[in-house]
Amino acid sequence: MSLETQAYVIIDLVMACLFSGIIGMDRERKLEESERSAAGLRTHILVGLGACLFTLVSRHGFSAADTSRVAAQVVSGIGFLGAGVIFVKREHVKNLTTAASIWTTAAVGMAVAVDAWLLAAAATVIIWGILVLLRRFEEKQFSHKS
Description:
This protein has 146 residues and is mainly alpha-helical. 75% of the residues lie in helices and 4% in strands.
């Protein structure tokens, strides 16, 4: 990969970090003090950055190879990482939304890596809306079911 290409894709890495950070900020805000080691801001940024970097290396570093194979492995690998934050406590599943946000953050990073910045930005806004706005809706509509 040429130095010019590497310099260009650094912008992709920064964009992936920014978009992933927006998603991670919500998860960080949601964590209680005892859960600070769970997937928050830094985890989401690293997931988005890693997915972007894997996709960029696949796209620019192995031009003769089937680059979709790396994308498929990123999807399953992030699924494994997300499963690590899910736990069951007395018949209650916890952190499922965080696992889903990790998975979608990886998709945002991959979208940035293929220069689909508008798609990544739109997905970030939609994910943020789901995490923040729908939580408020759920709290109002379903708070009596605690």
